[in-house]
Specification:
DNA polymerase, domain 1; 2 strands; 3% strand
Length: 234
C-alpha cells in the first residue's frame, strides 16, 4: 500500500502539476508510463537522463523538473527505490481534480563561469572579524536552516571556504561582474563590485532579469560546476 502522500499524487494531479509548472512537453511521457504516486515522487535527474529519445526536454529543463519534484517529497524521506508501472489500460484510474497546486519558481543554472572563477571572486571578499559570542550564535542558528536557504553551500572535497584578505594601502577595487540567465539561452552581465551580502546579490540578479519578488521565493544554481544539480544555499 502507498502512504498518504503517495496516494495524493494521482495521474490527474501529476498532469495538472506539470502544466502549472510549465513542463507540458513531459505530460505525454508521464501519462504513457503511468508515472504517478510513489513513482512520481522518486523521479530524479539520473532517471530523466534515461529518457533520451522519448523525452522532449532540454538538459536545463530536466534539471529544473528533477529539483521541483524533489521539493515535493516529505522532509523525513531519505532513499527509496524507484519503481515505474507500465499500464496501457487506464480506464479505472481514479479521478482527482485538485483545487490548487503550488507553483515552484525556479531559475536555471548559470553557464558563464566555473567553480574556479567563483572561488576567486569569493576570496576577494573582505570579511570583518566577529566576536566569539556572535560566532556561537551563528553556529546555533545554522542548525535551523530554512527550506530555501539564502546561502550556497557545496559539500565534499570541493567545499568553498571564506577567507579574509587584507588589502594593501594602495589597493583599488576592481570591477567584478557575473553573467546570469533565467532560460539558459540569454545571458545578462551584472556588476557586483562592492557587493558583500549574498541576499543583495541574489535580489540584484532578480532585478536584472526582470523577475518580481524576493530571492527567498526562487532557487539559484551554478551551472558547469562540480555540483550543478545542487541548488546554491549560500
Amino acid at each position: 500500500m502507498m502512504d498518504t502522500n503517495d496516494e495524493q499524487w494521482t495521474m490527474d494531479r501529476v498532469v495538472h502539476w506539470l502544466e502549472v509548472n510549465n513542463f507540458q512537453p513531459a505530460i505525454d511521457v508521464f501519462k504513457a508510463n503511468q508515472i504517478c504516486g510513489r513513482a512520481f515522487l522518486d523521479v530524479d535527474l539520473p532517471f530523466l537522463m534515461t529518457l533520451k529519445g522519448d523525452f522532449p526536454l532540454t538538459m536545463s529543463d530536466r534539471r529544473r523538473l528533477a529539483h521541483a519534484i524533489k521539493t515535493l517529497r516529505p522532509a523525513e524521506e531519505y532513499t527509496y527505490s524507484r519503481t515505474i508501472r507500465y499500464n496501457n489500460n487506464n480506464n479505472n484510474t481514479p479521478r482527482y481534480i485538485p483545487t490548487q497546486d503550488s507553483k515552484v519558481p525556479l531559475i536555471p543554472e548559470r553557464k558563464s563561469s566555473n567553480n574556479e572563477h567563483v572561488l576567486d571572486w569569493v576570496k576577494t571578499f573582505n570579511i570583518p572579524p566577529i566576536s566569539a559570542a556572535v560566532a556561537r550564535n551563528n553556529r546555533a542558528f545554522s542548525t535551523n536552516v530554512p527550506r530555501y536557504p539564502i546561502s550556497p553551500r557545496l559539500e565534499g572535497e570541493g567545499q568553498w571556504r571564506m577567507v579574509r584578505r587584507r588589502p594593501g594601502p594602495n589597493t583599488t577595487e576592481h570591477q567584478q561582474s557575473i553573467h546570469v540567465t533565467k532560460d539558459s539561452d540569454t545571458f545578462h552581465s551584472l556588476q557586483v563590485t562592492g557587493m558583500r551580502d549574498p541576499r543583495l546579490i541574489k535580489n540584484s540578479i532578480l532585478r536584472k532579469l526582470g523577475i518580481e519578488g524576493g530571492c527567498d521565493r526562487y532557487l539559484f544554481f551554478h551551472e558547469n560546476g562540480k555540483n550543478s544539480v545542487q541548488q546554491i544555499e549560500y
